[in-house]
């Protein structure tokens, strides 16, 4: 479903909303949180890949030949933003096992809320690839905008951003800096608090995934 934000698609499927409510709960333990992030990533990837081009192929069933379809076109590359994006990789790979995986290391400075870069590695032929950038949280949008800029510097031209929870501030910022990048999310939340956390949100995604704090 498209929203008032032209760059945002919200996935309203009942299973997505059910799992998201479990994910938000402060009572959900690390093990279940990790499983939910994995499952939600797979369900969002189903929506995010809806435009993949197909080509006709001949398939021989045990009875006769028929026309089937297979995904064609550009090679798909997943790029988790470390750390929390790592929790989304396996779920998407279950749908698209042939996808390659790059990595972008970024953390948000707790005081300035500015993204700090520490790692970048994607396949060399970036201009020939479709990218799915993965991060559970789109808050101020600083991390996502910086990751997209890094991908574009490497030659990427087709990028989609998959997140679980988005804030209006982040959707606006990504749309302003990178209007070509579509966002797929499970929820658009109300606002950010004074420390840059999404409200109602789910807390610190990285800490909840990896049991740190
Ligand atoms: C979180 C989250 C995003 C970023 C979002 O990561 O996973 O990458 O914050 O915030 P923004 O939209 O305001 O940039 P964090 O910086 O906490 O790093 P971590 O994944 O290593 O915990
Ligand atoms: N990063 C998180 O993990 N959670 C938020 O609410 C905002 C940024």
Task: Describe this protein with a few key phrases.
213 residues; alpha/beta; Rossmann fold; eight-stranded mixed β-sheet; three-stranded parallel β-sheet; 15 strands; 32% helix; globular; binds 1-O-pyrophosphono-5-O-phosphono-alpha-D-ribofuranose; binds uracil
Structure description:
- The model has no long low-confidence stretch (mean pLDDT 95).
- The protein has a single domain (8-52, 78-210), classed as Rossmann fold (3-Layer(aba) Sandwich).
- The two termini are 35 Å apart.
- The protein contains 6 helices and 15 strands.
- The protein has 213 residues and is of the alpha/beta class.
- Strands 1, 4, 5, 6, 7, 8, 10 and 12 form an 8-stranded mixed sheet that branches. Strands 9-11-13 form a 3-stranded parallel sheet. A two-stranded antiparallel ribbon has the order 2-3.
- Uracil (URA) binds at residues 137, 139, 196-198, 201, 204-206.
Parts with pLDDT < 50 across at least 5 consecutive residues: none
Can you tell me the number of structural domains?
Answer: 1
The end-to-end span amounts to 35 Å
- Could you state the order of secondary-structure elements as H and E? EHHEEEHEEEEEHEEHEEEEH
Helix content: 25-40%
- The beta-strand count equals 15
Radius of gyration: 18 Å
Mean pLDDT: 95
Task: Report the portion of residues in β strands.
Answer: 25-35%
What characteristic shape results from the CA principal axes? globular
- Output the CATH topology: Rossmann fold
CATH architecture identity: 3-Layer(aba) Sandwich
Q: What structural class do helix, strand and pairing data support?
A: alpha/beta
Reading off the top of the CATH hierarchy, the class is best stated as: Alpha Beta
What's the number of helices?
A: 6
Bound molecules: 1-O-pyrophosphono-5-O-phosphono-alpha-D-ribofuranose, uracil
The major sheet is characterized as: 8 strands, mixed
């Amino acid at each position: 479903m498209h929203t008032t934000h032209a760059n945002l698609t919200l996935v309203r499927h009942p299973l997505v909303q059910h799992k998201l409510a479990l994910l938000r709960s402060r009572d959900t333990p690390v093990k279940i949180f990790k499983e939910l992030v994995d499952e939600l990533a797979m369900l969002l990837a189903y929506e995010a890949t809806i435009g993949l081009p197909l080509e006709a192929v001949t398939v021989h069933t045990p009875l006769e030949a028929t026309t089937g379809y297979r995904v064609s076109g550009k090679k798909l590359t997943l790029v988790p933003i470390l750390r929390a994006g790592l929790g989304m990789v396996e779920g998407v790979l279950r749908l698209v096992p042939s996808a390659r995986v790059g990595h972008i290391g970024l953390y948000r400075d707790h005081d300035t809320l500015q993204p700090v870069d520490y790692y970048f590695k994607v396949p060399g032929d970036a201009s020939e690839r479709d990218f799915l950038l993965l991060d559970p949280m789109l808050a101020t949008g600083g991390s996502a905008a910086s990751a997209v800029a890094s991908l574009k510097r490497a030659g990427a031209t087709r990028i989609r951003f998959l997140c679980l929870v988005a804030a209006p501030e982040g959707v606006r910022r990504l749309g302003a800096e990178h209007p070509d990048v579509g966002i797929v999310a499970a929820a658009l939340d109300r606002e950010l608090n004074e420390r840059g956390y999404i409200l109602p949100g789910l807390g610190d995604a990285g800490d909840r995934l990896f049991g740190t704090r």
